[in-house]
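Q: Got a minute? One more chain.
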Amino acid sequence: MPGPTYSQHPLSLPSYPRGSHLITSDITSQLSAPLKGVKAGLLHLFLQHTSCALSLNENYDSDVRKDMSDSLDKIVEEDKAGKGIYRHDAEGSDDMPAHIKSSLVGASVSIPITNGKLALGTWQGIWFLEFRDGKHRRKVLATVQGERE
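A: Always. Here it is, folded:
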């Protein structure tokens, strides 16, 4: 029986506005070939940026994504009035709060693979959370590992 295989795949996300976005279909479409034939394994997604995040959460009701973004904005204050609450403010009032939110939520997720498909729960989806106001092109490094059929 062959051992586990490993492969890495650089992915690009479309430019999203500030907020929480469901990206499950974007990820699975970019990884359809590498996932095919994996009997049992793991997909690890690593976001190569410090002002956005990845998460697994509700995939059905878009209000959950809006509420998450609103809640994170309340937890981490933005210095729109320029009071100097952050030392790191050269890139705009949204930058330091974006770094804090990225640390709170995280830059990676791992998802089991079963028979070539992501083994997400019924209501789970892959989220991309953009914490900056401007639109940015974001990169994700996907690592697929597992036993092949």
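A: Residues 79 and 85 are 6 Å apart (CA to CA).
Q: Perfect, thanks.
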